[in-house]
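hey can u check if this looks right to u? its 251 residues, i copy pasted from the old doc so theres a chance i mangled smth
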Amino acid sequence: MKGWTSLFYKEILRFWKVSFQTVAAPVMTAVLYLLIFGHVLQDHVQVFEGVGYTAFLVPGLVMMSVLQNAFANSSSSLVQSKIMGSVVFILLTPLSHWAWFCAYVGSSVVRGLVVGLGVYIVTLFFTAPVAVAPLWIVVFAVLGAALLGTLGLIAGLWADKFDQMAAFQNFLIMPMTFLSGVFYSIQSLPPFWQQVSHLNPFFYMIDGFRYGFFGQSDISPWVSLGIVGAAWLAVSALAIHLLRIGYKIRH
């Protein structure tokens, strides 16, 4: 236990020591989204009955911040360690691939949840959506952060430099996040794009998380939970396999 917890603590300190960049900056970005979209569309869009657009937007922005920062934590840490050569010091330890996985994904979950909580607290100054099912909120926040932390781990193992990691984030993570229903309900889309949205696992994370606030969603939260859980198990199996064989970190 001491081995993986030490690595976990090191990863927590890595992002916390620059919290102005890793926590405060994403919170500010989310608030800007809320100010712009909430101000423009508040009186023109109503997705759920009795729910204002600004209140509808808050859970999406919180979850988007959780996902993006969980991914950024594990991916940037591994790529930075590989470029600087400091990964060799971790390789010299008798840590198993399970220890690596738990430490990197666990710290990513912590960062994602810290940023998400920060976004939620700041948005309380603008609107206060009532959490009707808080357990669903916690489940989807933790599971979503774990899924993106694991994807970040895979991206960090694959990428040899920062521009490769940026390509992974800009051409995969960002589009899937923005097309997941953060700013809208997929029911407002044409039938073809509704079907396309159902192929996006990020949609199920956003939709299930939003259900915890309003008790309303585009699909059943149990379906979302099953799909997100299966997706996390699949990417976790791949990440653990890559760590076990030392993909791009053991030469």
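The mean pLDDT is 88.
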